[in-house]
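DATA CLASS: polypeptide
GOAL: derive structure tokens

***
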Amino acid sequence: MPDGNADKALTTGPSSSAPPSGPTRSLVDYQKQGGFKALQQVKGGGQRATADAILNEVRTAGLRGRGGAGVRTADKWQMVRDAVSQRGGPPYLVCNAYDADPKSLIASSLLSTQPFRVVEGIALAAYAIGAREAYLYMRSNNRGGYDAVNAALQQSQDAGYLNDLTITIVGVDVGFMGGEESTMLQVIKGSRAMAQQRPPFPAQVGINELPTAVDNIETLCLVADIMRSGAAAFQKTGTKETPGTKLISVYDANGKGQLVEASFGMTVAAILQQAGLNVTPATARGVAVGGPEGGVLPSAQWNTPFDYDALKAAGTIVGSATIEVLAANTCMVAWAQARSDYLAAENCGKCIPCRTGTKRIAGTLAGIISDVGTTGDLDLLKEFGDYVPNASLCGFGWNAAHPLNSATRYYPDDFDKHLKGECPTGTCIPVRSHRFATKGVL
């Protein structure tokens, strides 16, 4: 867990609203920067007026969830409120601060340096949906983040900001799957960390079988900013479809990471430049975008805008908002195999398409880099590249084939050369002495 880097370089682009500048670990510092003024203002209008004011402002701002899927936050909250009206409540709120991607610096940074902003965002979201109980779900090994946000909760409670709201911190470490929406609800319930069938969605049936809003920590911090500075200020940056900014973990080819804040719509190349990285086709084989389940982009695609639809069209995702520069000697078959092998180990194993598919992809790629592959393997990989996302139960499986599919899409020569017994970069070491088993893999 990269908690030790939480206070390190944060390179900011144009701000979409007015978040507190610099670390604010004390209540006094946060109040001096306008903290909790928005919460005090909306609480003065009564419960229903409070909920309507927050939801309407967030809807006007056009805020999309920053957890990777890009669902409009106001739409999710409205679904919760509608479910409460139809089925009863009370509703619950979950703040996802888990950082499922081990290379993501986002949640650890926000918890450690902006804990009061996190608390205010949770409180505002809870009022928007009418929740009296919320959970802050995070990595158990993020000790620095826990200490900071726990102290902020206590100070906020003592100051009277949370008199009608209970926020419980849940610390777990259940691997990459722990960040999946339905999985985290299972963990909070005390059940095994496995994905669940949807529908019904958590906004309809969640904790205690009651409507539950699950929002990313960055999303909730932006809710606090929007309520402080207004929807119009938030919309000054970003795109029409996705207003605002995004925190992005950027890694150079040596694995050194930093956190940057960039406007949606900036190109991948511009984000790398903002991070101070001079990346060229001579120095990088590609740029991986989206974390473990994201795809790789060759130099011809580095001008792709960082936005949900544009990245999807290019064969990757916003995902965990991690951008990694791949060294010039990277073999893309080996890169796709390593990603697929990781995902095969990290999936929950509940559904066969994901459990078996990721294993078959990883094993077949291992055979190719070990010079025991055949041309028929490419057809098999194409089949699994379609089958796994189309038949899996949750978002893990839906995105698990991006490393494979983007590598075969943009670097077909790497696969062709390996099938002829030659690694294109001369870096691969055989890992198998025989072909991957085609039976008994369930």
About this structure: The radius of gyration is 22 Å. Residues 16-234 form a domain with the Rossmann fold fold (CATH 3.40.50.11540). The longest strand covers residues 133-139. The chain has three domains: 16-234, 245-327, 332-419.
